[in-house]
Amino acid sequence: MARRKLEPGSHGEISFQELPAGRVQGTIRFRRLDGTHGRLRTRASSKAQARRTLLELVREEYEAVPVVPGGLTRDSPFIDLAREYMEHVAFTGEQRDTTRHENLRLIEKKLSPLMGALTLREIKATTVLRVYKEIHADTPRQADTCKALISQICSYAVMNDLMLANPAREVKSVKRRPKPIYAPDAMQLSEFRSIIRDFQEREDRLGPRPSDLLGDVVDLILATGARVSEAVGLKWQFVDLDTTPPQVTIAGKIVDSKGQAKRYEDYLKSEAGWRVVTIPVELVPMLRRRRLAGGGNEFVFHTRTGAPNGTQDVHRALRRVREWAGLDQELVPHALRKSAVTAVADALGIEGAAQFAGHKRSRVTEQYYAKRAVLAPDTSTVLGALQQSRQQDGAVLDMTAGRDGDERGARAAER
């Protein structure tokens, strides 16, 4: 009878042979993960002991160490695997520069202190769960990002035969209650613009009058729904004020994340992000003013030295206004984008709002951007018909009248 073919990472039945003095010899066939076959023998005082020893030896053979090109083994520390994974990502271009830079920061600042020295064979689901809980205790929002990053690193290890399975996939994230969408309405935005003007013209200010950068970027975001990086990255070649209606093409952005040099990128968050937006005529005077004052600079928003303004310039200016006026900390440029998306969703529906915002899926727009209307549709006419039918039925019968008369008659008969 032919022997059963073994799959990689499996073993056959253990055969035993009786030896003198009551001892036994156990033999087992197995197949390594790379497809090669092997055979192990051991001697013990009992079949149970021989079985335990053989299974442990086979497990070690399964984990026996294929060396990947970078020289990693299952005894390598996790931090070495994480760094090699990031080199692999840079080579393949799987992640944008900003994402890769942030992941490198999380590896060094968050993951390395908590699990960097553990070997790959020591990384279990309980390890990932412990790390997730510790990060969640300090920064809940970063905990999910770190767990996803660990999962990506472990998947790379599985791909290179350094792990048998991805332990991060067994760890569930904490369910978070949906956060209410903060999107200032038209009245709040009008008041906000007034506060910006008051801040610029305040009597106690020191130095020259602040620039119009913040107010102009606010107007552009509210008119186009652009991200702040897309707003400050707008070039004049993508502004057409002569068409009817005027148009702006969102085709690039400024990247100036912490620890990175400021630069322009001609690709956006996704393919759906590239879009042509018609703008209200109220925005045209601001753009014409900036074009006249720009001196031929290719960027709509730029510094006195000619370099493009960055997102940090806008955040810094807005932070000063918030502190001066005591405004809500949630009033950030992204909240203004949500106001614009909400207005479009109310007028044109969620699909139109998704195209306007540059989202690939309308679910993202509905879940995170478009503020849900609190006022329900006017149903007074529809439901009024139900009230009219009730009035046409005539007087309501007194259901207790007959019952009360019967009770009085029964008491009289008893007397």
From TrEMBL:
Residues 176-383 form the Tyr recombinase domain. The keyword Calcium does not apply. Keywords: DNA integration, DNA recombination, DNA-binding. It comes from the Bacteria. GO terms for molecular function: DNA binding. The keyword DNA-binding applies. Signal peptide: none annotated. GO terms for biological process: DNA integration; DNA recombination. InterPro entries: DNA_brk_join_enz, Integrase-like_cat_sf, Integrase_catalytic, Integrase_recombinase_N, Phage_int_M, Phage_Integrase. Belongs to the 'phage' integrase family. This is Tyrosine-type recombinase/integrase.
